[in-house]
Amino acid sequence: MIMIAVLVAVSATLVYRRDGIDGVLEILFHDLSLFGGILPRVLAGCLLGAFIAEVLPHEKVSRSLGPNSGLKGLLIGTAFGAILPGGPFTAYPVAAALLTVGADFGATIAMVVSWTLIGYGRAVAWELPILGVDFTLWRIVISLPIPVLAGALGRFVYVRMYPKSAAEPPS
Fold first, then answer.
1. CA distances from 72 to 67, 78, 148, 169 (A)
2. What share of the chain has pLDDT > 90, as a percent?
3. Phi/psi at 53 (nearest 5 deg)?
4. 107 CB-contact burial (10 Å; exposed 0-12 / middle 13-18 / buried 19+)
5. 3-state secondary structure string, 54-66?
6. pLDDT digits (tens, 9 = 90+) for 46-65
7. In terms of C-beta density within 10 A (0-12 exposed, 13-18 middle, 19 or more buried), how is residue 2 classed?
8. pTM to 2 decimals?
9. How many CB atoms neighbour CB 124 within 10 A?
């Protein structure tokens, strides 16, 4: 946070020297407008994550996505991430909710990596119309094993770093 504050101060000083106070104020008002547009999305995502954490049955999530779910948990996480709509304001609160209700790091990592790499929403809205069917299908096929591998690696590392709590859901 300190580093970002220093970069902001240096940047503001450089803009002030080049464009004067009008340049600084223009950037400030534009960014405040951007922040006002993003804030409702962040709030909605956080509320979604909180409600999901309350609604999802902890036992079923732990059984399906927990530390003892094996390959099945990684595949479920991958499939869920691939179909999860929305941007980061949705995906990360949902991932946090899954961790809260009993999913392990591996399945959650698989979900986030799958959402990032495979996400059907972006593929349908952007990739298919711009890059075509062949490219989109091959990219998805080639990307499919990566979330599972990332989740398996995440699970492996987590169990080695926190051996006593590996059988419990991460907090």
1. 11, 10, 10, 17
2. 74
3. -60, -30
4. buried
5. HHCCHHHHHHHHC
6. 898 899 889 988 889 989 99
7. exposed
8. 0.78
9. 11
Cβ–Cβ < 8 Å for 29, 36 = no
What pLDDT is stored for residue 85 in this prediction? 87
Angle (CA) 32-33-39 rounded to 5° is 85
From the number of C-beta atoms within 10 Å of its C-beta (0-12, 13-18, 19+), residue 81 rates as: buried
Task: Show me where the domains of the chain are located.
Answer: 1-43, 56-171
Residue in this structure with the two tokens 């096929």, named with its chain if needed = 141
SS (H, E, C) 10-58: HHHHHHHHHHHHHHHHHHHHHHHHHHHHHHHHHHHHHHHHHHHHHHCCH
Give the DSSP letter string of 111-151: HHHHHHHT-HHHIIIIIHHHH-HHHHHHHHHHHTHHHHHHH
- Identify which of 8, 35, 37 has the alpha carbon closest to the alpha carbon of residue 24: 8
Which residue has tokens 């709030």? 43
Integer angstrom CA distances of residue 68 from 89, 107, 163, 168: 29, 11, 13, 10
